[in-house]
Specification:
Helix content: over 70%
Shape: elongated
Number of strands: 0
Oligomer: single chain
Largest sheet: none
Distance between the termini: 46 Å
Number of helices: 9
């Protein structure tokens, strides 16, 4: 394979990865798995997972869960839904997995977040609240901490 054809293949792979990421962003509340995402762009699940991690720094499943948690945070800030309702609204089928992943990403359980976030964001436009309350992944928190020291 020449460097030109390898470069062209790399660009095609990146375009397919963007389609997968866009599909996750659009359909985060639907039941999605890596196999279905891979079939949609004619890749094997293993190849998709490896390439997605190289391009975006996390697995397709990790990216999906982050999107779901971000949406859950917005719904919990509204305060009109229970944690269980939010869990199912964002596409999670297990309250335990949802709560565990939420706590990992946000740092507090969803019920605690719901109590504090509704008061903390009163009067702040939702677009600003979304930006300042975005979850910080563990690897981002470590690198930010390292830069501060």
């Amino acid at each position: 394979m020449t460097s030109t054809s390898a470069s062209a293949q790399h660009l095609r792979d990146l375009a397919r990865l963007r389609r997968v990421r866009d599909r996750i962003d659009r359909e985060y509340a639907q039941p999605l798995d890596v196999e279905a995402l891979a079939r949609g762009v004619n890749m094997s699940a293993g190849h998709l997972s490896r390439q997605f991690r190289l391009a975006y720094g996390e697995s397709p499943y990790g990216y999906l869960m982050t999107r779901r948690i971000e949406r859950a945070m917005a719904l919990l800030r509204r305060g009109d839904l229970s944690v269980t309702e939010v869990c199912f609204e964002v596409g999670c089928s297990s309250l335990g997995t949802f709560s565990t992943r939420f706590t990992e990403l946000v740092g507090v359980p969803p019920s605690v977040y719901r109590r504090h976030a509704t008061r903390a964001t009163v009067g702040i436009p939702s677009c600003v609240a979304k930006q300042v309350t975005r979850p910080v992944r563990n690897r981002e928190a470590r690198s930010a901490k390292a830069q501060l020291v």
